[in-house]
Amino acid sequence: MNTQEQIAANRDFCKSPFAQEREPSDQQKRLPQPPLCKPAQSEQRIALSRDFRPVMTETDFLTILQNRTSQRFYKDEEMTLDQLSFLLWATQGVKSIRGNHYATLRTVPSGGARHPFETYLAVRKVTGLCAGVYHYLPLEHALEPVGPLENPQEQIIAAMHGQKWAGGCAVAFLYSFVPYRAEWRYSTSAHRVALIDAGHVVQNLYLACEAVGCGTCAVAAIDQEVADALCRVDGKDEFIVYAAPVGLSDPEKNREGNRKMYAQTILESNAVKPLEK
């Protein structure tokens, strides 16, 4: 397949397939439903607070929307575990369970309430947590350790396909897709729905960050193999699809960092003259 054929195929993927005839889904075939969440892989737990009010620095929704921006450069300080707890709840928190464990109702929408994502954290600077990878357990609102990080800054940069700014974050959120959780209901249409749902999750992360004095910038340009290996997922039945480094907000540092980054991009492209210092 040449480039133009690949572009045409990708455009077709973006179109709604629901009016087309297709084979019944596994749900329609009455096959067993997959678990609502990935089971814990260990007995270790790090409990997370549900008392979010003390960490809120901004509660006016209009101000949060107005201030929302992509932030790539952060204070070189630790986030608190309570700030992290709020961000996890705001993006994948379970509010209730529908039916006999048929679906979870969460803080974000999801097609068919499938919520086919798992949240992993590459922690660099969070109070009370050792540098390492953690997995969020939304039904318990807790973390389980996945493994240590010997050089978290460099490992985060590598997972973000060499984007050096990402290494300055306090923690990187990495979202995995568990395909069958969505395929069970939507069959061949599941994947388009899931990618739309991923946007809902990370938009909540942006807004939640603004509420607790943090910033983030979504990253689609990940190194697939490196990110999968970092989170210890198999790359087939579960793989990373989206990431978002997070840190304490520093508006002036972010403005200056972005100015330099954009100036370098323009210089390298030879499109226009570089910005004046």
What does this structure look like?
The protein has 277 residues and is of the alpha+beta class. It has a domain at 61-250: NADH Oxidase (3-Layer(aba) Sandwich). Helix content is 34%, strand content 18%. It is built from eight helices and nine strands.
Quickly describe the structure.
This protein has 277 residues and is α+β, with helices and mostly antiparallel strands.
* Broad shape: globular
Question: What is the architecture of the domain at 61-250 at the second tier of CATH?
Answer: 3-Layer(aba) Sandwich
CATH fold-level label of the domain at 61-250? NADH Oxidase
- How would you state the average pLDDT, rounded? 94
Structural class: alpha+beta
Task: Please outline the major beta sheet.
Answer: 7 strands, antiparallel
Count of beta strands: 9
CA gyration radius, whole angstroms: 20 Å
Strand order of the largest sheet: 1-6-5-4-7-9-8
SSE pattern: HEHHEEEEEHEHHEHEH
Distance between the termini: 45 Å
Proportion of residues in helical segments: 25-40%
Count of helical regions: 8
Uncertain runs with pLDDT below 50, 5 residues or more?
none
Strand content: 15-25%
CATH superfamily of the domain at 61-250: NADH Oxidase
* CATH class (first level) name of the domain at 61-250: Alpha Beta
SSE blueprint and pairings:
Elements: H1 3-13, E1 46-47, H2 61-67, H3 81-92, E2 94-98, E3 103-106, E4 117-123, E5 132-137, E6 142-148, H4 152-159, E7 171-177, H5 179-186, H6 190-211, E8 214-216, H7 224-231, E9 239-248, H8 251-269
Antiparallel strand pairs: 1-6, 2-3, 4-5, 4-7, 5-6, 7-9, 8-9
Helix pairs in contact: 3-6, 4-7, 5-6
